[in-house]
């Protein structure tokens, strides 16, 4: 009877909840998967979800949040495209007593009462894991690294750079020779990699690529192949997200390692929101998701199969 009550009670608890989600856009495969998973997690709980696509622009996110406030939604989720510039709109949400939850990226604010919790991975740690993997893989060899950064001013771009820099700092043989943003997209990842290759002796000076996400790595792999070099061998490739296409590349020997980022940030966010609303339970300020390293030794073909239908 208790089990049945729980089954009956769980969706009913959330059936009257309306959540507005200000999503960044669809810059990467990971982002597309996060949007699909958020819809699925809302549906599971009977939550009415309204998604606003900001097309990569903070001004669109500010408009969307203000419109959610005007509509009187019960909660607002924000995946903040950049880290700064959120205080005013979050104060407006606070005045309207609408809880805000941050998904997958963090913000710079002096007042952390402006949001209920942030569901993210430890993006500094991700960069560190990528850097440590590379240091271990190259050993004593000299290695000139090129870096494709994520969106300028976004928390994952800032932190993934920081973590990686920290990890290679004690290895004098590892050096970043070029670094530029590829805006987390495949197209820009390819373009910028082409310019790196041109500037570095047709790519022959480059030992490794570190990309802040898999999509940029996938674009860069194409550029490496078009330059007549072998990605994964001539140029090592390490990135972050664990999207299906990078597993395909790893299985084909064209990429070497990725750090997993779950697309399910919304599940824990909805649960925290419901517990807060129904029992007044304050969640921790940070709900941290896991980050696991995958290489060719971790059955990339199987990982590809397991993920390819998850909305990426
Ligand atoms: O890694 C990248 C995306 O915000 C942590 O955003 C997220 C990043 C993710 O576009 O692929």
From TrEMBL:
Which UniProt keywords are listed?
Answer: Signal
Has the keyword Signal been applied to this entry? yes
Query: What InterPro entries does the entry give?
Result: Peripla_BP_I, SBP_2_dom, YtfQ_transport
This protein's major location comes to other
A molecular function (GO) term: carbohydrate binding
Known CDD domains for this protein? PBP1_galactofuranose_YtfQ-like (cd06309)
Q: Looking at the keywords, is Signal present?
A: yes
Q: Where is the Periplasmic binding protein domain?
A: 21-264
- What Gene Ontology cellular component terms go with this record? cell envelope
Q: Where is the signal peptide?
A: 1-14
What is the protein name for this chain? ABC transporter periplasmic-binding protein YtfQ
Species assigned in the record? Methylobrevis pamukkalensis
Q: Gene that codes for this?
A: ytfQ
